[in-house]
Design goal:
Low-confidence stretches: 291-296
Strand order of the largest sheet: 1-3-2-6-9-7-8
CATH superfamily: Zn-dependent exopeptidases
Mean pLDDT: 93
Strand content: 15-25%
CATH architecture: 3-Layer(aba) Sandwich
Number of domains: 1
CATH topology: Aminopeptidase
Radius of gyration: 19 Å
Number of strands: 11
Number of helices: 8
């Protein structure tokens, strides 16, 4: 429950599940949280709109209907600018703290270098978040209070799915600015599928995702420029029957990025995602087992 930082009792994540999980799929929206702690906002240099620059705007609502296919949907309610759960637990930026970071922290990742560690220093367009630097104790409290319980719940959900079906498939969903370009094709894709360059799930899953979205009239790229973050890499273990793929959605399809408002495209895209979910869960089980058998 969110109590101390958010000032009110409410879940800081939720899992929307069907009465019975009928498929080995789990959908996740880790960056669409939009409940901003008052203490966090009070210490920010940014106004109410600017602070939302890194938010995956309403992706959770785009996915609400996927539950109809028998798959659970997990989502964070706290924002990415406050705490990024698509990072290692201690992917921390020394520039953000006066105290020396502990030796076990990862201070040299590309994400930390860009100011986007577990505790972000900036939001979109490299806008600095904080008036006063948070203390290391504050950072560790966020990790222990929100990060760890979220991942514990996601891990449990995937483990339960794996036990029930013999394997699990995590579809981790995000949104991206409409300005993002696939440098190889020089196009602005509608969807980018990330599978950590073929390591987080079998090729058949990646190919199916691409084919389905293409059939639905969307332009699709793979791994360029987003190959999947910590969640995709960490939970994607095909040899163990744990599969994960990331989907990035072009925000221009469903929102006005300057006004932070949904457009008519939102309902269209939500319908497409329901169709996508219906089709992706129909992949034959046998398509996933060769990876497991190879490990045995």
């Amino acid at each position: 429950m969110i109590v101390d930082e958010f000032g009110t009792d409410q879940p800081f994540y939720s899992i929307t599940a069907p009465a019975e999980q009928r498929v080995p799929y789990v959908f996740n929206s880790p960056h669409s949280g939009r409940v901003y702690p008052p203490s966090f906002l009070n210490n920010s240099k940014l106004d109410a709109d600017q602070i939302r620059g890194s938010e995956d705007f309403h992706v959770d609502e785009l996915l609400q209907d996927v539950v109809r296919v028998g798959a659970p949907l997990m989502q964070a309610h706290f924002p990415r600018a406050f705490l990024d759960i698509n990072r290692e637990p201690y992917e921390l930026d020394q520039k953000l703290f006066d105290e020396k970071l502990p030796p076990y922290s990862n201070r040299k990742s590309v994400r930390v270098a860009s100011g986007l560690g577990t505790i972000a220093r900036v939001v979109a367009e490299s806008r600095e978040i904080y008036q006063q630097k948070p203390t290391l104790d504050e950072a560790m409290a966020r990790i222990e209070t929100y990060y760890r319980p979220y991942h514990d719940a996601l891990r449990h959900l995937l483990a339960r799915t794996h036990v029930a079906f013999g394997y699990s498939v995590l579809i981790d969903c995000h949104s991206m600015p409409s300005s993002v370009i696939d440098k190889e094709t020089r196009t602005k894709p509608d969807i980018i599928v990330g599978d950590r360059y073929g390591t987080s799930c079998p090729p058949v899953l990646t190919a199916a995702i691409v084919e389905i979205f293409s059939d639905l009239g969307l332009t699709v790229s793979c791994n360029r420029p987003y190959a999947g973050g910590f969640i995709t890499e960490h939970y994607g273990r095909p040899s163990r029957g744990l599969h994960a793929a990331q989907i990035e959605i072009n925000r221009g399809l469903y929102m006005d990025e300057k006004q932070l408002e949904l457009t008519a495209g939102f309902e269209v895209l939500r319908t497409l995602f329901t169709e996508f979910a219906e089709r992706i869960v129909s992949i034959p089980d046998g398509a996933f087992y060769p990876e497991q058998q190879a490990a045995e």
